[in-house]
Amino acid sequence: MACGQQLVSVINNRIAEENLNRKIKVFIFFIISITMASMAVFLAFVQEGSNGLFNVELVPKVYFSLGSNGSSVKRSGLLQRTETMAPAQFLFFSKNPEKETQAISQAAERMEASIQDLKGKLHQKHKRSLLPSDLLSTDVLTVIANVSGCLPYMLPPKCPNNCMTSKYRHITGACNNREHPRWGASNTALARWLPPIYEDGLSQPKGWNQGFLHNGFPLPSVREVTRNIIEVPNEAVTEDELHSDIIIVWGQYIDHDLAFTPQSVNRLSFLGEVDCQLTCENRNLCFPIQIHANDSFSMSVDCMPFYRSSPACATGHQGVLLGNLSVLNPRQQINSLTSFLDASTVYGSTTAAENKLRNLTSEEGLLRINMHYFDNGREYLPFVDQVPSPCAQDPKADNAERIECFMAGDTRSSEVISLAAIHTLWLRQHNHLARALKKLNPHWSSETVYQETRKIVGALHQIITIRDYIPKIIGPDAFNQHIGPYKGYDPTINPTVANVFSTAAFRFAHAAIHPIIKRLNTRYQDDPNLPNLQLHEVFFTPWRLVKEGGLDPLLRGTLATPAKLQVQDQLLNEELTKKLFVLSNNGSLDLASLDLQRGRDHGLPGYNDWREFCNLPRLRTEGELTTAMENRKVVKKIMDLYSNPSNIDVWLGGIVESILPNATTGPLFACIIGKQMKALRDGDRFWWENSNVFTEAQRHELGKYSLSRLICDNTGLTEAPLDAFRLGKFPQDFKSCENIPSINLGAWQETLQPELTCSFPDRVDHGDFVHCLETGKSMVTYSCQQGYKLLGEEQLTCTKGRWNTKPPVCQDINECENKMNPPCHSSAKCVNIKGTFECLCTDPYELAEDGKTCTDSGRLSKGSLVSIILGVIVVCCLAASGWFVICCWEVVELLVNKGMLMEDKEIAEKLNEFFTSVFEDEDNGLPPPRTYATQA
């Protein structure tokens, strides 16, 4: 038995050894599998990294989707985010400037942030010394200006001197004044008529620092000013007996021709900035509007988000670049439009915007139109390139149908449908005139037709505004005092739009906006199929124009409906203070608070400073205020909030002043508006009355035109008042369109003189030319489309029946070769395309809204997904192979063991006998016998 027990022990040890071997094999298999799987995933992310994952220059993606109270920040300081469009997003879309303006704004913000950072480090370094720590050398600032991208925008533009630039204004407004080429140009700083007032003397808005005193008192919250003084119910409307509602629409339209200040781009990658939608603190680019706990505007919110206006390059903390290092230049704001009355609402203010709006394949110099929808055969504005755009959709329409926001010379064209209607009228007018001019002058090139039409349309904007609109706004007495008769172009007058004009004075009409929009039938009566709409129902709703009757019913409503009178205790209605841009249950904005906060953001001096500027007496007491504001209750509310008349925000002071006779403004705004209009007129080399712009016969014809004629020419209306701004009753105060004067374009018919005529100039690919006559010579000036440069002579002269040289060539510009100012961010790849370029991102990155920077899309790349799938397949194959190898290993081992035991049959037989005897005892506790066979 002892021998048997030893054998059993040997067998048990062998079994345990085999189990251990099996476990080791399984463990090794899993180690190999995990390693291979990890390698597969690693390789996938290495692939991701090669696509830019580890590129430290990538900027984070900024999301503008807001929550259920999209315009406000909850008490926790954070917003609940959904995909529903919020009012602040509509505002962001309408305030979204062209790419060139975005680039300038971003360059200015980069420069400002860099200088702030450097000054902070210098201050820490020299805080114990007497050195001026906040001053940087000119060399350092120049380097920062160059690296940030500001420098090119700080240098004066080159002004070519040819017949083209003498005859037609540049789309950017540059070189209008030859001595001061940046005066009035787009993307330059607004003018300052008085020095700004910032709380740090440099850039901090009024009201930025809690507890800061102005004339011994803190400024009230702008929202409290709105609640206590400005806001009134929709029913509180006193109608204007003199003026129709279209006078308000025209004011908004012309305001958008003169000024547009872009808001900060608020890039979160900058110096640890926070999203202005997510904070109630004043943080560099964020200046939120505080809301008190008892404010009915919105429950459980502390503030409305507010983005500061972008700085202009070389102002604020950057300002020492402009000269003496000991003198700081306070922050200025950009005007992205041309300052001139030049119909930039139709044509844009940059070359890129102009090219998007033009039909460059047309021989008639036409503008692009909408190819999807027509208004009884008449054109609509084209849709924006951004699809889907944020404009609201018809709730009854099929989900597949979309009517996008309109595209015009100004990005705000879709804000309200009445504004979109005016934009549409001028699109139609341009194409109407262009076709007629081409028919009169078939020898004109498409460029000549376009430029001549643009010149006429700009003149009509000037005539309707200065002759018909402004006298009704400021009154005839103020017009004579501040504007007076035209005496010719004065190159010493700066036409640049003033900050106080665009930020305060020309916003006077916000207090005259009617809360109801009417649409009338052909008899100028209510149409049951087109009921009245509240103002908030027409924000960003171009579908209403397209699907609810077109322009005609809406224009009839504006002509026959009285404007809202600007009354001191009936200022902005709830449609503007509680429902601005509200298209869903997604919060709203407050226009009055935005206006007040913008004035503080721009550092506008107070009400009394501007009265003194206009030679009006300063008002020091409540009693003196009542001499300018006759409503004593309003005056008391103002003094309760502001305590000192000099602290009154200029926009508020201007809209509550008593109205001048035959005007719609008080004396302060009449002064500011009058001074601005005189500067725009007298400082414009291309003003329509200038003798070098049009012929006497052409000026005579232009003088016949009116807004009523514009409506007659471009709608189905057959009757209109002689003066569209004057309120009249239908039918007695309306005239047949046949009796409303129109232009005879015969004054533009050109008769070629044979002795000055050469053969028809050769056309050039990707370019065009214009004819002109100077000093008795016939000349032609060539120009290239955007993205091409002109090689050869720009201007050809006709001499003895022959052109003096060959035409030039338009060569594609390879923008990607620009190393000093690369068109794409370093995170993107620049690819040259004929006439333009494209910034490309490797998967899974995608282009940000600037079209130049790659941002993380939040998904894996296709290469990574393929790598992971391949890795999984490899692991599965290895697993199957591993199990197969292990199983074969055990089979081979058993066969080998059997072979070794079978070599001695005698021993095998003895072992079998032994096991048989041992296992006959059922109580020995041994495992079942392992039989060793002796047969093959």
Describe the structure.
The protein has 936 residues and is α+β, with helices and mostly antiparallel strands. It folds into five domains: 2-55 and 862-919; 84-155 and 186-217 and 262-335, no CATH class; 344-484 and 497-581 and 590-708, Haem peroxidase domain superfamily, animal type (Myeloperoxidase, subunit C), CATH 1.10.640.10; 754-813, Ribbon (Complement Module, domain 1); 816-856, Laminin (Ribbon), CATH 2.10.25.10. 38% of the residues lie in helices and 9% in strands. Strand 14 and strand 15 (777-784) form a beta hairpin. The two termini are 30 Å apart.
Walk me through the topology.
Layout: H1 2-53, E1 73-74, H2 87-94, H3 99-125, H4 138-148, H5 151-154, H6 163-167, E2 188-189, H7 222-230, E3 231-232, E4 239-244, H8 246-258, E5 289-290, E6 301-304, E7 334-335, H9 344-347, H10 351-357, H11 417-440, H12 446-474, H13 476-482, H14 499-503, E8 516-517, E9 533-534, H15 542-547, H16 551-560, E10 562-564, E11 572-573, H17 574-577, H18 591-601, H19 607-613, H20 622-625, H21 632-642, H22 650-656, H23 667-682, H24 696-702, H25 707-714, E12 719-720, E13 735-736, E14 767-774, E15 777-784, E16 788-791, E17 795-799, E18 802-803, E19 809-812, E20 829-833, E21 836-840, E22 845-847, E23 854-856, H26 862-902, H27 905-919
Parallel strand pairs: 3-11
Antiparallel strand pairs: 1-6, 2-7, 4-10, 5-6, 8-9, 12-13, 14-15, 15-17, 16-19, 17-18, 20-21, 22-23
Helix pairs in contact: 1-26, 3-4, 7-18, 7-21, 8-11, 11-12, 11-16, 11-25, 12-13, 12-23, 13-23
